């Protein structure tokens, strides 16, 4: 069985590396090419790249696992994310595409903030770059945990005598392939592989719950099995309090501040194309989320009907792939999981690298560095961030959803209000931007460190986002807006 599965995975890895080599020849001659693909992404590529880099292993591991363990009430996280993504495409995408080009042709989010608020250019670039690198290292480690879990569940004993050997092999193999195409091909490689990975993910997420449903007697049989476990298992509202509802919906706030997602808006070929990309991206997201809900719900019914044990609910997608399909198809499904993991890791590594190269190396060390030198330094930074993430991911008991939720909240609270106000409010000041950035990040970290997220049940993005808004508005109102070309802000 493992042979057929390994063949499919090997073909997938070869395809990803092949895309990296293609991109290497197309767009790595300059920093703009390496970091933004020359601002010439097709709307479909931009849309699926944003979606695939957004959803990560959370879509096939964390969300189905939460539904498996708790029931349909966990779907509110998906609903909140869908609404947040839609608002992000409508409010942020066209404005960010326009303003980043008009204000100094910014290649990174910190660089855009510096151009938007020139009086606080250096502190904004440095602080935002630090936040990007720190939270993305945590975020990347979450993806690598997913890769480790995949290999522990699928290939136990193949790479060693212990589960830890399988886990670390999965982490190193996942990181190795991502590094191969990201370091070589840059942003274009990441975006094109994201497009392919997004297609694989949506096919897998549609196929698996359909097969489960009809393998076990159809929707009626699944429903009766689940209601026998818990009469409220299929209820959207059972056990859902006001705080739980707000916290779940608040996941959508995070979209405005996710650098690895909004950087796709900067790279789409023109402002008009953002509308086409939005329609494609939201359609993809809707189908994918429904599929992920189906995997968790139908998967719970399948395991109960067949009296199969489940030690880790987050591996339900992997378990169903092995139980229900031919090894070659299993390999395809596991490739979908790897696609979800790798698409996010590669995007995060590249954004972290761009911050280190443009906002540290060029800013402080080599202001006149050549384009070739900057591309090579970017590749080195990709490697360094990945090694740090591998070290953080070495604990096999880490939970993907927990790691993702912490990083998501950190970015959402630090950058969300900052991006929204900087794109839409002309009276915002550099001091207000810096205050909001720092306040949002600090409040999230303290909320987690003191255990308030668990004791109150309030997701840390809520107090962080609110505090960031208050700091941004309050400090801006007592200052003077920057003297910049306000025509560049109009769209």
Automatic annotation (TrEMBL):
Reactions mediated catalytically:
L-proline(in) + Na(+)(in) = L-proline(out) + Na(+)(out)
Tell me, which GO biological process terms does this entry list?
proline transport
Its main localization is membrane
Q: Domain of life of the organism in this record?
A: Bacteria
InterPro entries, per the entry:
Na/Glc_symporter_sf, Na/Pro_symporter, Na/solute_symporter, Na/solute_symporter_CS, Sodium:Solute_Symporter
Q: Name one GO molecular function term.
A: sodium ion binding
The alphabetical list of record keywords is: Amino-acid transport, Cell inner membrane, Cell membrane, Ion transport, Membrane, Sodium, Sodium transport, Symport, Transmembrane, Transmembrane helix, Transport
Cell membrane listed as a keyword: yes
Q: Does the keyword Cell cycle apply?
A: no
Gene3D superfamilies in UniProt: Sodium/glucose cotransporter (1.20.1730.10)
Membrane topology of the entry:
Multi-pass membrane protein
Localization, per the record, is: Cell inner membrane; Cell membrane
Could you list the residue ranges that cross the membrane?
6-24, 75-93, 126-147, 167-188, 195-214, 234-256, 282-303, 323-351, 372-393, 405-425, 432-449, 461-479
Q: Which GO terms describe its cellular component?
A: plasma membrane
Give the protein's function: Catalyzes the sodium-dependent uptake of extracellular L-proline.
Q: What is this protein called?
A: Sodium/proline symporter
